[in-house]
Amino acid sequence: MRRRVGLGAIQQQKLAAEKYKDKGADLQESQLEQMTKQMDVFRNKLEEFAMKHKDDIRKNSQFRKQFQEMCAAIGVDPLATGKGFWSVLGMGDFYYELSVQVVEVCLAANHKTGGLMELDELRRRLIAARGQSAVHQEITKEDILMAAKKLSIFGNGFVIHKLGKGKYMVQSIPGELSMEETNILSAASNTELGCVTQKQLIRDLGWNDYRTKQALDKVLGEGLCWIDKQSEEPSYWFPSLFPGRNAAIAAT
User: Fold this and answer.
1) What is the dihedral of CA 132, 134, 135, 138, to 10 degrees?
2) What global pTM score does this model have?
3) What are phi and psi of 173, to 5 degrees?
4) Any idea what the Cα angle at residue 81 is, between residues 76 and 84, rounded to 5°?
């Protein structure tokens, strides 16, 4: 007959398990403390680097982009840090000014774009609005994305949507885009004409007829696109993605 485990043995196993648990918690706490110290060192070194290369960061847009990538790599937000990197570098006013210009440019074009504008087009419009001075031309897409963070105070009135690799769309009308709307927008941005059809979405997104029609009706009802019923199948056109828009802006 098999001998049963005694009460003393059970208590010993329980004590051993608790010791392992306590030891594991101690190790986790120690590792977290070490990582926190390392991150503090990284931040301090990053700030020293920023001060050393202050002029390059301010004047050279490419250097500024690389600095932003360094910050992102270690999870540092220059706008949210306690010392405020951009304020230390004298760049705080630059981004506040740029964020105001983003609002002005987007709102001025809403009647044409339906409240959506590609980031590349926004940059071209900003450059045209800021003047011909070389210092005014030195703004990158990363600068615009950084400035757009300041617009979060407006809630969902100004939102940056990432549509794919390196592709962004700026929304400057109140309201949140659903996943279906974002997918439709992404599909349209991948076409040469900036338009989609119901059959195309069913094929590319794998949706059924009902889901596709509901999503298109919502996008149309919100004024984000126009519908063309002249062809055999209605097509939905996004003004912000019209072909030739960027060339026309560059020529003005």
Assistant:
1) 100
2) 0.55
3) -125, 150
4) 120
